[in-house]
Amino acid sequence: MNFTETAWKVFNQSIEDYHVSDDVNALINNPFEKDSLERILYAKNWIDTVQWHLEDIIRDENIDPAEALQLKRTIDASNQKRTDLVEFIDSWFLTKFENITPKPDAKINTETPAWAVDRLSILALKVYHMSLEANRESASEEHRANCQAKLDVLLTQKEDLSTSINQLLTDIECGNVKMKVYKQMKMYNDDSLNPILYQKGQQK
Asked: Which Pfam families match (predicted)?
């Protein structure tokens, strides 16, 4: 089983486990061994799955404004955790490839392995939920057909993205691509970088 096959299997296990309770407040019960890559991937997708449903909830037109504000802050915190975990996965790959010397003409990819894996995790959620819609008995036949067409595209995208990730990892391992990581440096959660936050602090 190659890397993306493993990741896809883990992502889908996380999604299935979440939907047992289908509750954004449910506690994660990670079934994989400590320090294993599978455990990291499961935790990554769990964050994505919870956030997927938080985004659904906040789009309720009848939501209480105070609840919406709290949800927005929860989503912001979730985004930060997601970013931190993606960067942790990149650190895992950096350690894995630390003894690889890139060739003099090695290229630099537009995204790191972990950010490509991030897209694969979100894609697993899209496939899961589009499949539900394509098979939802309460929906019209037209709706199901439209969703099936979209699902077919998503599944093709899954194959293409998986191939690309595996090729990227092979290229890094062979020295054809230089792995270079930059921190995301998100600013909106930082009291010293978000002007709305630091200006409030100056007014006190």
From this structure: DUF4254
Rounded to whole angstroms, the Cα distance separating 92 from 40 reads 10
Residue 43's identity, in one-letter code, is A
Place of tokens 């599944």: 155
Helix (H, G, I), strand (E, B) or coil at 33: coil
Tokens of 14: 């996380």
Contact in structure between 17 and 29 (CB atoms under 8 Å): yes
Here the contacts of 191-198 (C-beta below 8 Å, separation 24 or greater) are none
Instruction: Report the alpha-carbon distance of residue 78 to residue 68 in Å, rounded.
Output: 15
* Structure-block tokens of residue 142: 């037209």
DSSP 66: H
Which three-class secondary structure state does DSSP give residue 34?
coil
Q: How far is Cα of residue 73 from the mean position of the Cα atoms in its chain?
A: 18
Is the pTM higher than 0.90? no
Tens of pLDDT, residues 160-181: 999 999 999 999 999 999 998 8
Look at residues 53, 15, 18, 8 and name the one whose alpha carbon lies nearest to residue 155: 8
State phi, psi for 108 to the nearest 5 degrees: -115, 130
Q: Cα dist. 66→58, 60, 62, 77 in Å?
A: 11, 13, 12, 17
